[in-house]
Amino acid sequence: MNVYDLKLAKQKIQDYCAYQERCHQEVSSKLKSWGLIPDAIDMLLGELMQHNFLNEERYARSFARGKFRIKKWGRIKIRLELKKKGVYSKCIDFAMQEIDDNDYLETLKELLQKKSRLVKEPNSFKKKIKLKRYLVSRGFEFDLILLAMEDISIQH
Question: DSSP for the chain?
Answer without folding.
Answer: -----HHHHHHHHHHHHHHS---HHHHHHHHHHTT--HHHHHHHHHHHHHTTS--HHHHHHHHHHHHHHTT---HHHHHHHHHHTT--HHHHHHHHTTS-HHHHHHHHHHHHHHHHHH---SSHHHHHHHHHHHHHHTT--HHHHHHHHHHSPPP-
